[in-house]
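S1.2 Input.
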Amino acid sequence: MSAARGLVAAQSARFAALDPLLPPAAEPPRDGHVVTAALADGTRVAGVICHESFGPHSTTRLWSAAEVWELVPLIGTGQGMDALLTRFRRHLDADEVGEDTACVVHWPSRDTVAARAFLDHGLVPLSVLGVRLRTPHPHVPRTLTIRRATPNDLESVLALSLAELEYSSLVGSTIVRPEAPALKRRALAERLAGASPIWLAERDGIAVGLAECAIVSSEPGTAAAHRLPRGRWGYVNCVSVLPGARGTGVGRQLVAHAHQELHRMGTVGTYLYYNPPNPLSSVFWPRQGYRPLWTVWEVRPASALR
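S1.3 Output.
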């Protein structure tokens, strides 16, 4: 077994001990820059730094910097995150780093030892992948009309989606870019035309809430398999409530309905991303049964990595 495979096996054991819902550690990417470090006890750790740029027509730019360096650590069961982050910083010194850039690391939320190293190097927990296993949802009294969105609802869906984007840009990783309305319109039109699981909550015939969801399969060879247990999952991509309707129970009713319908589609659970600095979602989602599985540690611009 190669050194890398040994680290992957050890890291899988570490993940299993941290959280039973974590999938085994994935093999490192083959198209990145390899960094290694020797620790005081003589053991070695490694990582792969991947670099990616997103053009003006990419929807990824709505929740990401235009240029991203991501570290994929291989520390096994050791304490080598600090050493790898130091190598990460040195690697950036050889590149020309602009302002619309970021350094990112995805890491299990329950690994508090690694969290200390991230904080020391200037990274912050901007996003969390939260999961909710399929369980009976508490009864939520219905005072709204909730229905499946159709292509005719594009303008309402777009307005609610942009409202969520604007609010999240204040408290998370999303960015309100000039091209955002056009990018959102195109993506939402395609999803509505494909009958994606998207629901609108209406009060007196006016759309006040949106739940934009999807079905994702976590199977060997899929991107989802690196983050989720095996199975068919419901992805809660965007839940938005108009500013004037927030705090009136719209979100609770909408999410309860979305959970019920996604479970009816055969999902083992649901997952989503929320921003810990968001004073609304950081409270709302745990109350709906979600708990952190992965944390996305990030620093912008990339040159701010310590």
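S1.4 Remarks. The mean pLDDT is 95.
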